[in-house]
Design a protein that fits this description.
This is Membrane protein. Keywords: Membrane, Transmembrane, Transmembrane helix. InterPro entries: DUF1145 (IPR009525). By secondary structure, the protein is mainly alpha-helical. It has one domain. The protein contains four helices and no strands. The chain is elongated, with a radius of gyration of 15 Å.
């Protein structure tokens, strides 16, 4: 399970890399616009996940600053990793 979570985090990291590259060096045509929309949507959804999780479990689970921000970056895969760490 740990290897699959790491692989998924690497895939999401690659997606963020492509989205950030598009911000500084836009892709040609309508691809840039589509990637801008995807960037906003991904940031909004992961931000919502982070706010919901911290609102529901923030006082019950002690998390490091990196774990909180990793939810914003990696989404559900960070939550699975946090659950795996705190359930042991």
């Amino acid at each position: 399970m740990k290897a699959l979570i790491l692989l998924a985090k690497a895939a999401i990291g690659f997606v963020w890399l492509v989205l950030l590259v598009n911000i500084f060096y836009p892709f040609p045509g309508v691809a840039a616009m589509a990637l801008y929309i995807m960037t906003g949507f991904l940031l909004m959804m992961h931000g919502l996940q982070m706010l919901i999780f911290l609102g529901a479990f923030g006082d019950k689970i002690s998390m490091s600053r990196w774990e909180k921000w990793s939810i914003l970056i990696f989404g559900i895969f960070a939550l699975l990793d946090i659950r795996r760490k705190h359930m042991m």
